[in-house]
Specification:
This protein is an alpha+beta fold. Helix content is 26%, strand content 30%. β7 and β8 form a beta hairpin.
């Protein structure tokens, strides 16, 4: 652990001796303290990383596509069968996402939408409702770090797993509305154009953060009535 060496007295003798160049007691204590502190910091960092990213890792490990036919949906058409609120809620079979939808949430008011996201999915104030023939905008998982993943609702964390043809079911005022995914893409953080109806008929727009656990971009999934 400590350095050792062979010492010769130049020009005097060939005799040699070996001595230990051990540091003083105080230096040894400081060395062990620094070494222990370094190991502790490394262990703490590893545990912290696992704690921080575990919710994301768990969702990825647990993900299995759920396939359910329209016949099954028709036979179980009531929201209560899925444990959902018939007044306003969402169910996405493929990713098994189920949540209450909080209506008329101001997407520009951080305190308001964070409160809503702690309870479910937020419906953007000023956008429309199912059956009105216009754009419906729902958003969830608007967090800026994996730590907030555990704090706020992350119903749409697996939204990126959806593809064209997948189904989304909305329950509103006791009625079931079925939609089919037609498109998905990412857009900029400040792109609010999708909050405005473009006169293209009824469209369900689902938004989440992308990549998951960041606020760099927005992932949008567009669905049309079936």
């Amino acid at each position: 652990m400590y350095p050792k060496g062979i010492i010769y007295e130049s020009g005097k003798s060939r005799a040699s001796g070996e001595i230990g160049l051990a540091p003083k007691l105080l230096a040894r204590i400081a060395y062990h303290l620094l070494r222990g502190t370094g190991a502790g910091l490394i262990a703490f960092s590893i545990v912290g990383a696992i704690f921080t990213f575990w919710p994301i890792i768990k969702e990825e490990i647990a993900y299995k596509p759920h396939h359910i036919g329209f016949g099954d949906l028709i036979s179980r058409s009531r929201a209560q069968d899925f444990g959902l609120d018939p007044y306003f809620s969402i169910y996405i079979p493929k990713i098994n996402a189920k949540a209450r939808v909080i209506a008329n949430v101001d997407a520009g008011n951080q305190s308001q939408y964070l409160e809503a996201l702690s309870e479910g999915v937020a419906h953007a104030k000023g956008t429309n409702f199912p059956g009105q023939g216009k754009s419906i905008f729902l958003f969830s998982h608007s967090t800026d770090s994996p730590l907030n993943f555990a704090r706020y609702n992350a119903v749409f964390f697996l939204l990126r797993k959806l593809s064209v043809g997948d189904r989304v079911i909305i329950y509103f005022m006791g009625q079931e509305h079925q939609y089919i995914v037609t498109d998905e893409f990412t857009t900029g953080l400040d792109d609010t154009s999708w909050l405005t109806d473009k006169g293209q008929g009824e469209r369900l727009i689902l938004q989440t953060c992308d990549p998951p656990g960041t606020s760099w971009n927005r992932l949008l999934v567009i669905a049309r009535p079936r």
